[in-house]
Amino acid sequence: MDTIRIHDKTFNPYISEEAIRGKVHEIATALNRDYRDKNPIFIAILNGAFIFAADLFKSLSIDAEISFIKLASYKGMKSSGHVISVIGLDIEIFNRHLVILEDIVDTGKTLHEFLPQLWHNQPASIRIAALLHKPAAKEFQVNVDYTGFEIPDKFVVGYGLDYNGLGRNTAAIYQLFE
Ligand code: 5GP
Question: Residue 7: inside a domain, yes or no?
């Protein structure tokens, strides 16, 4: 795999398509086991999680629903600002088992602000599945129940993740070259 150039930055190949596929399959296997007969609702956080959510959902063999929510908290290469719910939930979550799908948990701010809004509607349970987790960037306490890859606190793109709008359309994940 070659380096890629997005806007003014260069990114190195970091996690291959095969490694991602294997990990998504592992998470799906765990979810198939843990949510059998629970008819969970998956809530994918747009935009970044759309590819992870699609691949994961295709690997599920249990009854499951999916809905999408859009939050804004990230500009450029640093987490900033307040989490704003741009597109709300269009599904009744009272007494339902929820699995939040995130592309990446970085500082934890997004989920820290969003989860109380979900709990307000009294779901039966909430768990989090994140393809990527940067433990070193943690500022807010968030438990990630299903993690794909723990990665260092360095900016990554690809497989749904962008750098200022570009770079989402790669099958692999790339890391900022510094
Ligand atoms: P947090 O609120 O946990 O700090 O950040 C979560 C959101 O920030 C993610 O859903 C993602 O959109 C964005 N984010 C965090 N780290 C990265 C990164 O390394 N690359 C990209 N492209 N987005 C990131």
Answer: no
CB of 123 closer than 6 angstroms to any ligand 1 atom: no
| 90 is annotated as an active-site residue | no
Domain that holds residue 82: 17-151
In whole angstroms, give the CA distance from residue 62 to residue 74.
33
Give the C-alpha separation, 14 to 98, whole Å.
Answer: 30
Whole-prediction pTM:
0.93
pLDDT-derived band at 71, boundaries 50, 70, 90: confident
Residue 103, in any domain of the structure: yes
For ligand 1, mutation pick of 134, 161, 169, 178 (most atoms within 8 Å of CB): 161
Instruction: Report yes or no: 129 and 101 within 8 Å, Cβ to Cβ.
Output: yes
Residue 173 placed within a domain: no
Q: How many domains does the chain have?
A: 1
